[in-house]
Amino acid sequence: MSELSRKAGGGGATAAGAAARWAAARWATMLNAGGDAASTVANGPWTPLGLLKSSLTWRSAIYLAAALAFGLGWFVVLVVGLALSVSLLIIWVGLPMLALLMVAWRFGAVLERQLVRAAFGVKIPSPYRPLPEVRNPLVKLKSMAADPATWKDLVYLLALFPITLLEFVVSAAIWAGTVMLLFMPVIVAVDGSGAEVSAGFVSYWAGNPIEALPISVLGLFGLVVAMYVTRVMAIGHSAFAGLMLGPSPAQKENVELRRRTEHLRASRARGVDAAEFERRRIERDLHDGAQQRLLAVAMDIGRARAKLEDDPEGARALIEQAHAGTKEAISELRDLARGIYPAILTDRGLDPALSGLAGRAPVPVEVDVDLPERPPAAVESIAYFIVAESLANIAKYARATRASVRVVREDRWVVVEVIDNGVGGAVARSEGGLAGLADRAATIDGMLIVDSPPGGPTIIRADLPCTW
């Protein structure tokens, strides 16, 4: 296929390395998309060593210690601003003040979402309704005032002060005590007069740095407790922020429905494009292949009929030529029908059909099909053509010495992988064969990924859902 551009390169890469690159790309995609796989305080490590090594622990501790200033500042601004604005409404001065204050607290909520993401790793989607696309600022202010998310922002910022005050007190107490215990030998050495640590009815006197070392061991235990307390407070704060600053359940449902609708619209469009591409291919193959051969057969038969009485031998040769042309036309029509939907796929299933493709390939192909039951016909068809196109590309461009085909069931997905040890460099180009396969997979909400670094190997993987 002309859509594949390959560059020869030094070999060294292995199929396992390519698979690792593919998995890393999928992981990075989820992280960039803000998916559930991203590390947050809720799904981060919970072992003491994991908490110590995780940046989330220290980012959360810094936020919980510093957020009091943010909460206090907004509490003062909002209480004073609302009081002045409401009291001055009677002379209309309070109305623009209230509008400016509303814009300010919306900005504060936007900033808080970014701080929560930076500290806790939690991405809070914007809950705001789209503003009218007009230049009149009064219309936009009216839309902002009618948005429930604006008033949820106000409640959050007012509640932020008492929440951050409690978090600051707890954080300061537990971290100050932990630091004091950890550095007790240094404190004793600098002070010179010793120190006493009491816990209930138990007390311990350290007169020198050596005697203070057991207190530092106790400080390690305090460090573990401080990290767990910080993690719990971070989870609670992020949950409250998500509740007040994020979209409501109805908004989340609407967003998901719109996303699903857009996805289905795009899949339908790609399906229509794939069907149109297939129709043009069939029309081209009929016109350039079987139609031309049948036309030649008709002309040979006509010439033979004209020579039948005067030149029987020439007529016989023309009839034999027409007979050979007819068999070639039948063979091309059979291949064309197999390209539309192979009969063996309907009669015997995916394993024998792929084994037939592998048997006709110019390189050794190992086929491994592990399906407990036959998937839907649409999935079988798409899987078959993905393997067929991949093996055709291997024969034309890859300069491979071996290939493998693996088809397995993973939960509700059928996974198709075609791997070769060729020169790599495969690229899916617009309106090419690989792009057409991706369009086919998209019609059933599947996806196709090509990983083909220069030097190889090439991995073509398709994830096809069995339910939709």
Class computed from helices, strands and strand pairing: alpha+beta
Outline the low-pLDDT stretches.
1-37
How would you characterize the largest beta sheet?
Answer: 5 strands, mixed
Q: What's the average pLDDT?
A: 78
Evaluate the radius of gyration.
Answer: 36 Å
Give the overall shape, derived from the CA principal axes: elongated
Q: What percentage of residues falls in helices of 4 or more residues?
A: 55-70%
Helical region count? Answer: 14
The tally of beta strands, per DSSP, is 7
Order of helices and strands: HHHHHHHEEHHHHHEHEEHEE
- Strand content is 5-15%
**Strand ordering within the main sheet:** 3-4-5-7-6
Report the end-to-end length measured between terminal Cα atoms: 31 Å
